[in-house]
Amino acid sequence: MRLFVKSLTVIGIFATTPLVFADALEQTLQTMLQKKERHGDINLDYLNLNAQVVVPKVSRTFEIDEIVATYEAIEIRKKEADAYLARVTENKSTDYNKLVDEQRFALIEELLQFKLIAKAANEAFTEEEKGEIFKGVWIAQKRASTEVSNDELVALYEKKKGETLARSSNANIPTFMSVADKLKSEIIENKILMEVMQNASIEILD
Amino acid sequence: MKVFLKSLLLITLVMTYSEAKEIAKVNGMAITEAEANKALQVLTSGKKSWAKLSKKEKQELIQMVAPAKVIVADAKKTLTKEEKDVALMNFWLQKNTSRVSVTESEAKKKYEDMKKVLAKTGNKKPIPPFEKLQPNIKMQIAKERVVGKLMQKAKIQLSK
Q1: Model confidence at A1: pLDDT above 60
Q2: B68 touches chain A (CB under 8 A)
Q3: Is B6 on the interface with A (CB under 8 A)?
């Protein structure tokens, strides 16, 4: 699947039918790879010796630093195309030279799309806005990697329950399950905050 | 939790301000009086200003503003270039696709086209109803338009 579709998580349309809507590049590569895996049981019975052989058009091969495509001032070198190919095929295919022209064009078009969006995005935001965006990613990553045990959840629930009942003995206490997600979120945020500020030096000048 | 959320919200506000007077430093990064006042504007609905805060209140406020500054600095330092690029692209696409309006009939046409493609591949899985996919299809069309506009002048030249 196209990398930018995957990585940008723009849409979930294809979630139920990933193969059908995959781009041509992936399909040809998949077919190529699948064929390669099955080469041991080739059936030659249907071979028509008079058929016209269609050889995919393959341009010359390129050296690693050579420019494989250009668009206005953007130059795409083989190493970049290789890296992108490796990413979109999850390392199943890593050499631009092994692609036929049609695949090369599809790959370059997609890579260019990626570069153009990246360029537009980079120019669209101020440094402050970028900081905010990066902060969001940073927090999301921390949230995902911060673990909370059941004991921690129960302890916080009991603490809050005790505090609430101390204020009003008739208070309606929600069930643990109904607030577990909120409690988890709170614990994670506190952990992140503690981690961030653990070694921070704060100096008040005024 | 509230402190955390508030402190994160504050950075958005404080970053836009650049009044020079430094009132505190966190890991060497300056926090200005304007930033503090902007934060107080949110927290106290403008009832308090930095100058009127007690020493203890000043400390509390700086404790709230500081984490977001530290996080932004750490994010800039620790995220990979790829992560940063993807984050910016994601945001840029979201921002731009939200401005594109897509009609129901356009989405329906796309849905029917998708069904035809599926039929050709011999897909046996049931296809979700249009109503369920409509929001995503609209978003997909919007994204295609935004990217299409970006690519409309793209004339790629493969090296020979």
Answers
A1: no
A2: yes
A3: no
Kindly determine whether residue B23 and residue A205, on different chains, have CB atoms separated by under 8 Å. yes
pLDDT exceeds 80 at position A50: no
**Do A108 and B158 touch, CB atoms closer than 8 A?**
yes
Does B92 contact A120 at a Cβ distance shorter than 8 Å?
yes
Longest dimension (CA), chain B: 73
Please answer yes or no on whether A135 and B72 come within 8 Å at the CB atom. yes
Which residues in chain A are contacts of B12 at CB distance < 8 A? 132
Which ipTM was obtained for this model?
0.74
Residues contacting residue B54 through CB under 8 Å, at least 6 positions apart: none
- Contact yes or no for A143/A181 (Cβ under 8 A): no
Best mutation target among A2, A6, A11, A87 (most B Cβ atoms within 10 Å) is A11
Q: What is the dihedral of CA A117, A123, A127, A131, to 10 degrees?
A: -10
Check residue B9 and give its pLDDT.
Answer: 54
Provide the shortest C-alpha distance from residue B45 to chain A (in Å).
22
Encoded tokens for A24: 């041509």
Compute the average pLDDT of residues B138-154: 87
pLDDT tens figures, A109-127: 899 888 889 989 999 999 9
Q: How far apart are CA B63 and CA B65, in angstroms?
A: 6
Q: Is the pLDDT of residue A8 over 90?
A: no
Closest CA–CA distance from residue A92 to any residue of chain B (Å) = 21
- Do A187 and A153 meet the contact criterion of CB atoms below 8 Å apart? yes
- The single residue listed with the structure tokens 């503090």 is B36
The encoded tokens of residue B22 equal 């430094």
pLDDT, tens digit (0-9, with 9 covering 90-100), for A130-178? 999 999 999 999 999 999 999 999 999 999 999 999 999 999 999 999 9
Q: Are A204 and B50 in contact (CB under 8 A)?
A: no
Specify the pTM: 0.68
